[in-house]
Amino acid sequence: LAKTTQPISMDSYEGQEVNITCSHNNIATNDYITWYQQFPSQGPRFIIQGYKTKVTNEVASLFIPADRKSSTLSLPRVSLSDTAVYYCLVGDEGDSSYKLIFGSGTRLLVRP
Amino acid sequence: GAVVSQHPSWVICKSGTSVKIECRSLDFQATTMFWYRQFPKQSLMLMATSNEGSKATYEQGVEKDKFLINHASLTLSTLTVTSAHPEDSSFYICSARASGRAADTQYFGPGTRLTVL
Lengths: 112, 117
Hints:
heterodimer, A: mainly beta, Immunoglobulin-like, six-stranded mixed β-sheet, 0% helix, B: mainly beta, four-stranded antiparallel β-sheet, 11 strands
């Protein structure tokens, strides 16, 4: 089972900032939080990864509170091309390796 | 970010035939590779985890004799769908990470669309 919960869908308009929050109440001490973006018929594309506090790169910011039970992906000034499914992932200690189990993701629709 | 490729990007085959899909990490060595399957409008489902040089570990409900996985080198993993049937039609996506450590980012390939007639 996925270890994360996020909204099924969100709507926004071009130029707005979008914040997608993910809950991961059972996050383990060694877990990192990773966000991916997926367009139809494509593999997931890595957006950002963090362990605690705030991480920022050229496309997004990731905010993680001290208890790490949730995280928020922030997309500044979205455009139509940001319409996609966004997945928040926390790893799972498998039998052989640390692995990522996908939840349902958040379907973001950016309107003109 | 790191690049993971898949070949072919799409394949159509007749029922009963076997299909091989390749997954390559192009600019890093991947000790661990993963295979996922995605049906339309659904999320990715993990099928199996493979570590270089050892047998793959399959998720519950995935038939290991039907989905053969080989991870013979640090840059190549293959998934063979044996005796494919129409219900095996799906989008197959591989991913790779440099090691099994949590801090290592997992990168995904572009996916392979399999259609079984």
